[in-house]
Specification:
alpha+beta, six-stranded antiparallel sheet, globular
Length: 273
């Protein structure tokens, strides 16, 4: 996971993109702007995706993604917590596209003259401690995502339309996990949120999200654990409990496997930075 990202927080960054050694995931809607220079080449869920000069891109970052080549001198990023994105009430076709792992990438011809200034302003607003400035930035980011969707409607997308209950079912399950991941949860609990049999729910969830309910739930809990380790002084045992892990030993095993270091080491390394 990118150490700049604090899961669950609306945030903005600017700088020179860095090629990644490995794919990573975080449970946010990620929005990129190529401000100066050439192109960024991502492997997005294993598929090459190029974001060229002047382009704006948005994607669900829970899908594994990796920047493998970069000639961009300056870029902007905005991270919107996925639960916030769901609460925007965007059209089913747009939610479907992102849940299906298909990024929105607008060509430079669809760029807005105000994009560079807006992204810079959003970063300043989101760095602010003033709630009103952060609220204004969130409204403007939502509007930009809606315009981005209009500019990319002609691109291919996996079909999960409003007439197909799959999208509504998966959104219900994702929302239930987002609201209850700190509690003991089973596949049956998540399936019940969409009124589905657990076996069928698992099939539908994997069809859209490209991972299992269990793996998604684990990633959501790990994201919360990373946030707590970076932003609080809570004991590791409390972090384990507050992020939804049933036992400390299970938390240590899952965290070390996902992040490459134990929780205490992760906290120390990131605080040193």
């Amino acid at each position: 996971m990118d150490p700049r990202i604090e899961p669950g927080l609306l945030s903005g960054y600017a700088g020179r993109p860095q090629v990644m050694d490995a794919a990573h995931q975080h449970d946010d809607l990620e929005i990129n702007l190529v401000a100066d220079g050439g192109s960024m080449l991502y492997l997005f869920g294993g598929t090459p995706v190029e974001v060229g000069p002047g382009s704006v891109a948005a994607f669900w970052a829970a899908v594994p993604h990796q920047l493998v080549a970069n000639s961009v001198a300056s870029a902007h990023w905005v991270y919107v917590p996925f639960q916030t994105f769901l609460a925007w009430g965007l059209p089913d076709s747009l939610v479907s596209r992102l849940l299906a792992g298909v990024p929105l990438v607008a060509p430079p011809s669809a760029a807005l003259a105000t994009d560079r200034a807006n992204f810079a302003q959003w970063k300043a607003d989101l760095d602010s401690d003033e709630p009103e400035r952060r609220h204004i930035a969130m409204l403007e980011v939502e509007a930009r995502v809606r315009r981005l969707a209009l500019a990319t409607l002609g691109e291919p997308v996996r079909q999960h339309t409003a007439s197909d209950p799959t999208l509504r079912q998966v959104v219900a399950m994702v929302r239930h996990i987002a609201e209850h991941f700190r509690e003991p949860l089973t596949v049956a609990d998540v399936a019940a949120a969409a009124s589905l049999h657990p076996n069928y729910a698992m099939t539908q969830f994997r069809r859209v999200v490209q991972t299992t309910v269990v793996d998604y739930l684990r990633q959501r809990r790990l994201a919360e654990a990373r946030r707590l380790l970076i932003t609080t002084d809570l004991a590791v045992e409390r972090v384990s409990a507050d992020s939804g892990f049933g036992s400390v030993s299970r938390f240590y095993t899952a965290f070390t496997a996902a992040c490459g270091v134990p929780p205490a080491t992760f906290r120390r390394e990131h605080r040193l930075r």
